[in-house]
């Protein structure tokens, strides 16, 4: 086919004769930028701080737990006993307040133990959405570790966890304090709330920062629903609304 009979290229043309190419989806580009520069995390911190000032967050007792997410691909992959890299699961860690609302989240590979994820050293404690530390941390038997108890006690945080059945050292937990363990189902309810967001059920993102950004976005929606339910959210007046 000669050049004079060839069909004209589709799409708008400009005086220079250059045809505009299709750009990448702008929504995902903005999401990646907000995840990288900490915009979503700052919005989440502002929401949690405002909710705490209104009495919607209670740090007298907080619940901690982790869950495994099936990972299709991407970073933060664990290693098997032979040291080979595999991409089976990912570890998602969360801290909930007395009402079961998110206070901190973190994403890691499936290899580290949960005790190492909550060790009293950055960046775990720096991932909190509020500045105050919880008074009590309540976890399952996986958090029964004397070094963890001593490290948190130095920060003024009391760790409450049932003793392991194969524990050889003397017991350190009091049965009266372990009554709070009966309310640990609230952090499990938080994982169920996050499971309502389809993007968080299975990790499809290759980059761990994008997956953590979706986790932050889910926590933002959870806190916004609480504010809307309590009638505390005024989109025209609240300073956080202008950042969304």
Question: Would you mind describing this structure in some detail?
Answer:
Mean pLDDT is 75; it is low at 6-15, 17-21, 80-88 and 233-244. The protein has 244 residues and is an alpha/beta fold. The chain has a domain at 32-132 and 176-243. β2 and β3 (102-109) form a beta hairpin. Helices cover 32% and strands 14% of the residues. α1 (26-37) packs across α7. It is built from 7 helices and 6 strands, in the order ααβββαβαβααβα. Strands 1, 2, 3, 4, 5 and 6 form a 6-stranded mixed β-sheet that branches.
Entry summary:
The protein is built from seven helices and six strands. It has 244 residues and is α/β, with parallel strands linked by helices.
The SS-based structural class is alpha/beta
| Shape category | globular
Gap from first CA to last CA: 53 Å
Task: Spell the H/E element sequence.
Answer: HHEEEHEHEHHEH
Strand content: 5-15%
Using the CA coordinates, give the radius of gyration: 23 Å
Counted beta strands:
6
The DSSP helix count reads: 7
List the helices and strands and how they pair.
Blueprint: H1 26-37, H2 39-53, E1 62-71, E2 89-96, E3 102-109, H3 114-117, E4 136-138, H4 146-154, E5 158-160, H5 185-195, H6 198-201, E6 202-203, H7 208-229
Parallel strand pairs: 1-4, 1-6, 4-5
Antiparallel strand pairs: 1-2, 2-3
Helix pairs in contact: 1-7, 2-7
Keywords:
single chain; 244 residues; six-stranded mixed sheet; 7 helices; globular; disordered C terminus
């Amino acid at each position: 086919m000669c050049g004079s009979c060839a069909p004209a290229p589709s799409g708008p043309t400009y005086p220079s004769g250059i045809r505009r190419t299709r750009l990448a989806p702008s929504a995902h580009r903005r999401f990646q930028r907000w995840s990288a520069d900490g915009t979503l995390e700052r919005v989440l911190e502002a929401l949690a701080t405002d909710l705490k000032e209104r009495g919607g967050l209670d740090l007298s007792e907080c619940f901690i737990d982790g869950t495994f997410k099936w990972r299709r691909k991407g970073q933060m992959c664990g290693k098997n006993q032979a040291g080979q890299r595999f991409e089976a699961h990912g570890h998602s860690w969360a801290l909930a307040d007395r009402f079961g609302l998110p206070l901190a989240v973190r994403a890691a590979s499936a290899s580290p133990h949960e005790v190492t994820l909550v060790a009293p050293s950055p960046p775990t404690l720096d991932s909190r959405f509020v500045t105050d530390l919880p008074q009590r941390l309540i976890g399952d038997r996986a958090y029964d570790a004397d070094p963890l108890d001593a490290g948190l006690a130095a920060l003024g945080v009391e760790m409450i966890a049932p003793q392991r059945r194969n524990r050889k050292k003397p017991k350190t937990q009091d049965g009266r304090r372990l009554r709070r363990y009966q309310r640990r189902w609230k952090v499990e309810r938080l994982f169920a709330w996050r499971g309502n967001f389809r993007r968080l059920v299975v990790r499809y993102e290759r980059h761990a920062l994008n997956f953590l950004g979706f986790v932050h976005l889910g926590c933002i929606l959870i806190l916004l629903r609480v504010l809307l339910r309590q009638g505390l959210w005024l989109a025209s007046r609240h300073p956080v609304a202008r950042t969304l």
